[in-house]
Automatic annotation (TrEMBL):
Family recorded in the similarity comment: Belongs to the TFIIE beta subunit family.
Protein name: Transcription initiation factor IIE subunit beta
Described function: Recruits TFIIH to the initiation complex and stimulates the RNA polymerase II C-terminal domain kinase and DNA-dependent ATPase activities of TFIIH. Both TFIIH and TFIIE are required for promoter clearance by RNA polymerase.
Lineage, broadest ranks: Eukaryota, Fungi, Dikarya, Ascomycota, Pezizomycotina
Record localization: Nucleus
PANTHER family: TRANSCRIPTION INITIATION FACTOR IIE SUBUNIT BETA (PTHR12716:SF8), TRANSCRIPTION INITIATION FACTOR IIE, BETA SUBUNIT (PTHR12716)
Cross-referenced InterPro entries: TFA2_E-tether, TFA2_Winged_2, TFIIE-bsu, TFIIE_bsu_DNA-bd
GO annotation, biological process: transcription initiation at RNA polymerase II promoter
Length: 290
């Protein structure tokens, strides 16, 4: 069969079949998920574009993610943080400092009010056995125990007068448990009741002594004038002046020292050094080759 005959046969077969052409199906676009909340004007409709809805959905997803990522620091199984710490010894330290600043005994209720929590049995045992606290069982009070039980001017004078040595009292020890120590020391020094030594750098009080006024002796002006007229010779001339006065100086004047011993400049002849014989037990067995 020729090519033309095949082409005619194909066209005849297609023409004999039915018409399969159909109308195009129209798929509507999806409805918008959100609309603008802005009020619409009469006669005009407001619709949300697909780009605006996608941006709003992305913003909502980001906000939800941030909210989920936020952590809640509240631990309901632990007591609330009152600023005093969560450990017993940390809370005890705060209580000791509070009693030190108060300078008066405080009851258990006052300590619980300061700590903002009740004191358990462990805390009570630690406070009662603390070396810096004093517990009064009769009054159920706690007080700070300073190095010296001194908190007034009269107590300071009484303590200094009872001292048996001239060692003095450290101001640093006085300030332990006594906030007004420095002011009281300044007042007692101004009234000449105590003697105070101070630092050269900033003039802070370091040590205090009692000023025993019974030892103050009134000296006549005539004696003072005689004492001031005495001329003290320079330090190098003091030994000589003492010797002329018939007194023995406590130090020796370098100018009066004579070198009594002269150095021997003669050379000393050195003797020949002989070797030490250590094999004397072999004297009869060895042969002398000299």
């Amino acid at each position: 069969m020729s090519l033309n005959a095949q082409l005619k046969s194909f066209k005849a077969g297609v023409t004999g079949q039915g018409n399969f052409a159909q109308a195009r199906r129209h798929v509507p676009s999806p409805a918008p998920t959100s609309q603008s909340s802005a009020p619409s004007t009469p006669g005009a409709s407001t619709t949300t574009t697909p780009s605006a809805s996608a941006a709003a959905a992305a913003a909502a997803a980001a906000a939800a993610k941030r909210k989920k990522a936020a952590k809640n620091n509240v631990v309901y199984s632990q007591p609330a943080d009152t600023g005093m710490g969560q450990y017993i010894m940390t809370q005890v330290l705060h209580l000791v400092e509070h009693l030190k600043a108060a300078e008066v005994p405080l009851t258990r209720a006052q300590l619980e009010e300061f700590l903002q929590k009740p004191l358990d049995n462990t805390m009570i045992q630690v406070l009662r056995s603390h070396d810096k606290l004093v517990f009064d069982a009769a009054a159920d009070t706690y007080a700070f125990k300073p190095l010296h039980n001194i908190r007034s001017a009269q107590q300071l004078l009484t303590h200094l007068q009872a001292g048996t040595t001239a060692q003095g009292l450290s101001v640093k020890e006085l300030k332990d448990g006594w906030a007004g120590a420095l002011q009281t020391i300044d007042e007692l020094e101004a009234s000449k009741d105590i003697l105070v030594t101070r630092t050269k750098k900033d003039g802070q009080a370091r040590m205090v002594w009692i000023n025993d006024k019974s030892l103050n002796v009134q000296i006549d002006d005539e004696f003072k004038n005689i004492w001031e007229k005495i001329v003290i010779p320079p330090a190098p001339e003091l030994p000589g002046e003492l010797e002329r006065a018939g007194l023995k100086p406590t130090s020796v004047d370098p100018a009066t020292i004579k070198n009594a011993m002269q150095k021997d400049t003669s050379k000393k002849t050195k003797k020949p050094r002989r070797g030490r014989i250590t094999n004397t037990h072999l004297a009869g067995m060895l042969r002398d080759y000299n």
